[in-house]
Amino acid sequence: RNQSGKGVTLLDEMLDAGLKPSHVTYNTLIEGFCKEGNLKGALILRARMEKEGKHANVVTYNLLLKGHCKKGNLEDANRLLNDMLEKGLVPNRVTYDVIKDDMMQKGFIPDIDGH
């Protein structure tokens, strides 16, 4: 089993023991899935994170943005960027680096809806 899969098993054990994983825990696992190229797993984990009451933060979005760009899913990355802005999250330097280095250098100009 891959490393991210092992991480999810550990997450399940934490939850079964009554422990509440932090944003850092979820983001670390999401990053692992993205690095493995398993964006579907990362998105499932984000949904699970939200279900557990941990709302995605700017770090979560940055990881997923980078993951989409790595896969060439620039339209999906653009939608995710707009979702982040609609939720009132403020882009940070990492966000701008992803836009510049992973979107614009590939010739994609993000369409920011009303932001």
Structure description:
- This protein has 115 residues and is mostly helical.
- It has a single domain (3-106), classed as Tetratricopeptide repeat domain (Serine Threonine Protein Phosphatase 5, Tetratricopeptide repeat), CATH 1.25.40.
- Helix content is 68%, strand content 0%.
- The protein has helices at residues 3-16, 23-35, 39-51, 58-71, 74-86, 93-103.
- Helix 1 packs antiparallel against helix 2, helix 2 (23-35) runs antiparallel to helix 3 (39-51) and helix 2 (23-35) runs parallel beside helix 4.
- The radius of gyration is 15 Å and the shape is globular.
- It comes from Nymphaea colorata (pocket water lily).
- This is Pentacotripeptide-repeat region of PRORP domain-containing protein.
- PPR repeats lie at residues 22-56, 57-91.
What key attributes describe this structure?
mainly alpha; Serine Threonine Protein Phosphatase 5, Tetratricopeptide repeat; 68% helix; globular
Beta-strand portion reads under 5%
The value of Rg in angstroms is: 15 Å
Overall mean pLDDT stands at 92
CATH fold name: Serine Threonine Protein Phosphatase 5, Tetratricopeptide repeat
Query: Which CATH first-tier class would you pick?
Result: Mainly Alpha
Residue share in helices? 55-70%
Listing every helix as H and every strand as E from the N terminus to the C terminus, the arrangement reads HHHHHH
Task: Describe the largest sheet.
Answer: none
What is the count of structural domains? Answer: 1
Low-confidence sequence ranges: none
Number of helices: 6
Pfam families: PPR_1, PPR_2
Protein name: Pentacotripeptide-repeat region of PRORP domain-containing protein
InterPro entries: PPR-containing_protein, PPR_rpt, TPR-like_helical_dom_sf
Family: Belongs to the PPR family. P subfamily.
